[in-house]
Amino acid sequence: MDPAEEQQPPAAPAPAPAPASTLPDAPDRETMEAIRRRRLEKLGGGPGSAAGSGANSPSATSPTSGTPTSGTPVPEKASPIVPIANRSQINTTPSPSSAITPKDKAVSSILGEELGSKRRASELEGSPSGAPAPPRNKTPAREETFEDYVDRILGSIFRMSVDATRTKDAHGHKLTFLPNLGQELTDEAAPLKLSQDRLEEAIMEAATEYPKDKPLFEYLLGCWKRVVRTLKALRNPTPQKEALLKEARRLCFSNCIFSLTMPELFSRDPSPVHDTLVPYLLKEVENESGLCMDFIAEAVSRFDEDDTIAPLFTKAMVDISSKLSTMTMNDDYKPYVNALKTYARYAPLLNELAAHSCFQMAQSAPGIEKNTLLGPFFRISPLQPEVAAVYFAGPRTMDPRHIAASQSALQMTLNAHQADLRDIVNAFIRASNQTRSKVLDWFAYIMNVNHKRRAMQHDPREVSSDGFMINVTVILDCLCEPFMDSTFSKVGRIDINYFRRNPRIEIKDETKLNADQARSDKFYSTKVDGDNNFITEVFFLTLAAHHYGSEATNAKLKTLDREIKHFEKNIALMQAERPKVINRPFELRRLDDALRRYTTILEASMALRMCISGVSLEQKMQARSLQFMRYVTVWLLRVASGTEYTPEKQLQLPLPANQPEAFQCLPEYALQDIVDNFKFVFREVPQVIVNAVGDELIALCITFLESSEYVKNPYLKSSLITLLYQGTWPRYHLSKGFLGELMTSTKFANQYLLHAVMKFYIECELTENGFYDKFNIRYEIFQIIKCVWVNDHYRQQLVQSSKSNRSFFVRFVNLLMNDATYVLDEGLGKFPKIHQFQLDLKNPNLSQQDREKLEEELREAESRATSFMQLANETVGMMRLFTKTLSEAFTMPEIVGRLAGMLDYNLDMLTGPKSKNLKVDNPEKYHFSPKTLLPEIADIYLNLGSSPAFVEAVAGDGRSYKDSTMQQTAQILRGKHLKDEHEVQAWERLCEKFKKAKEILEQAEIDFDDAPAEFEDPIMGILMSDPVVLPSRHVVDRSTIVQHLLSDPKDPYTRQPMGIEDVVPAAELREKIEAWKEERRREAKKLKEEKMAGVVKGEGDKMDMTE
User: Fold this and answer.
1) Which residues cross the membrane (predicted)?
2) Tens of pLDDT along 491-523?
3) pTM
4) How many CA atoms lie within 13 A of 273 on its CB side?
5) I need a labelling partner for 674 at 20 to 30 A (CA). Which of 31, 75, 234, 609 fits?
6) Whole-angstrom Cα distance, residue 470 to residue 557?
7) Pairing of strands 176-177, 160-161
8) What is the rounded CA–CA span in Å between residue 54 and residue 50?
9) CB under 8 Å to 928, separation ≥6 — which residues?
């Protein structure tokens, strides 16, 4: 090597050694020896330190032996390391003529990188700024000896020197003088140079005397990075140099660990502040003060030989997690997440971390977020109240664009954080089977302690937060992504026996799809051998996470909406009250305090509502969620049908009568989550579903509506109707919504949809759904039928159903008429009240209290009128469609009489004298349009007018039929141009039929009003023509019980289930009734003959008298 490569500065006079009395106290020889022995044992067989036998003997280290030969001489006091910076500075810039080899240039560059490039002499201390460098005498270049190389390279790496005259290295870094080792070398008459043999002693002295107010690890970490960089920069090194640097690296790392685990080895007291890796893990790996990847890799490689390293790293991460638990997304949380991301690159570190007691410990639901290791990382979310208040400050005055911008910003931040969480959890999952199991256990524990999140009322302090649960749900969705392909090829890997194989998820207290608690417990008490595969584990964890996590959070939006309306109403009332107490200071102060309190709560609720909306509307999150729910849908249909169903294969309905017990005992949320998720997406994030929805969703809804006995909960079944209905809402270029075209054109829907929705139309009458809920369900059914009615196949199917399944269709039509009768009566019946309220409110003399009362009653009446008129319009419209397609089905004996009475009554309301009471201000506000409703009712008359039975039934309606009403209707239809002329003429011809039929009936009418009580039907009060005995032994007319059973298949007296086949004809009573009726007919005939005879006789007498 060129001897001029590292030309040393001129030697300065050596400073006089400090008097012994001025040195600080140091441990005695025996204590120091014990410490050194412990330290050498930790080194484990590498080159170590060996001391001479005498107190003044030189200390040497054998390259091949790690066992000391004798004690190391220690001064009575360890003198502090005096920074050479305080001594006189001299120029250390090499001569321009110095020759440096390329490989040593690289080493020198690495060691001097803190200074950037080499400084000119004028830039060093001791040279005037900007002054030219003084001329130097050129000396002949000489080859650098290995001993010189060792001294130079170790000095630069560890920033130390045993030569008091050498104050800086070649790059101007200050070197610390080691007086003790220097004195030993002087005593030994050895060169004042660092050597490999004495390196351990040098590190020990430098580390022992490092300032106690600074972390020793900080110094040693810097040394580690320099030695690593030096090693990496070597190109084709000699074995001696490579061995030197590797030994320096080994000793440096060992002392790094000792500085944290055994600070007393360096005469330092233990310090929680200094003896930790936390500050270094929190810095980026590129940061000079942060832990580099080489250090962590070296630590991991030494786990087996040094059992103190793993706990050191684990404790640091536990401390980082603990600190993060006090932070929010408003704080500087990113370094903490990055620390765990760096940590997660090394599987052994994760395995140790998963084995720590705080990874999963028994905690309350909110305690999981702060006291488990991963909890604080998942807790970071914009849904934290403090964060929501920042994103949505002043929510009452925020305009929509500002809200959207804030939501977009929080989505970006949350996406980045969730991506980090995904990487971290993936690393844990892949680390080892044991660690994977621990992570799955942690997720399961979260679900099992958060069941209260789905309760109607719960204390937020007793459950995990929304932000935490959303993050958990998203990460589990991400774990499912690898097996959720578009062809559902891996859906068969999801094992239905999961809950019978020591499942992680607890479902004992969950409502089951179609089993009670006793049956479910019995089923799950029988265990199945084997282990659950990873796909099955993650699938059921994710399903539960949606139930307790994202779906529970989405449901909170409705609660917040109600709270916001409540507080807004109360604030408005308080503000209106304020002028009244303006002169009463005490009351004013109380009112203002309440107003501020309500305003604070309102703004917090509004901010949280906007924040939840922003999180829930994130499209990527919802797209993943939607894909998962499609998988659940296909899997659920496979379990229920016992087939290997996929969307390319068609199911056969109805499902088997023998329901699979595994399906019956599944938690109800397996189906509920699908419905809730799709409903939310249809309503709030429709853009993500454009290309995501498939036939499986329609198959799910139709299957469990057609085979409704598979699902116990009537509200869950009705939500399937709602899902189909929302799928028909027009979106973007889809006039029939996302599902309309599929329901209209797919083979499966064509075959089963109409019967399924009609079946549930009947079923919702008999279930425990609220009385008014059934009208909403039927309204949605009407919308579904209207959407698909353009397909003639459905019309043909309806005709076929009316012929092949007469009883089913009769029940459907009967309920349709019941609904039409009720909703028209309720809707139209509110308008006279509304009309009167509107007149009363125009009275200027009305008191404020009476006005407020009237306004409240008006609002209630308007609300009911609006709801019922919407239902009435749809019900009448559906009857119009059906009567046009199959008029004969509506004129069956069981139906035609009631249908005629309903039509006559409502026609009289719309066109008769009572129509004047229907006039209200702004009728369109209530969806009341007589110009639309009247023609549709007229169409029903015209559709059925060709049936003699219908004509006779209308004419026989003694309550509402009036020929004058029919004529008035014709005038309105013509005068208002509500019908074409040929349709009005058809109406007039029909009216003539009604008139003639009425005349015929009047001629044949016989008065049976004085019938004995035993001959009258006890329910309807009419004379029985076909009496029958019910199972309860009561006697009613057959027509009465037939109509009753159409709506309710139970005995009207005992409420026990029954059918028409259970009645027994009362033959003897029927004979008595017929005999009595025949007697009444004879009496009527005889009376008529007597009257006729009297008339004739009277006329004859009169003629005689005129004569």
Assistant:
1) none
2) 999 999 999 998 999 999 999 999 999 999 999
3) 0.79
4) 6
5) 609
6) 14
7) parallel
8) 12
9) 827, 831, 865, 869, 918, 920
